[in-house]
Amino acid sequence: MATLEFTTVIKIRGVNPYVDVAKHQAARLRTEWRKPMPVLIKINGHPEKAWRINMMPAGNGDFFLYLHGDVRKASGTKVGDEARIEIDFDKNYKNGPLHAVPEWFAVALGQNPVATKNWDKLPPSRQKEVLRYFAGLKSTEARKKNVERVMNALSGKPRQFMGRHWLNGS
Question: Structural domains in the chain?
Answer without folding.
Answer: 4-89 (2.40.30.100), 103-166 (no CATH)
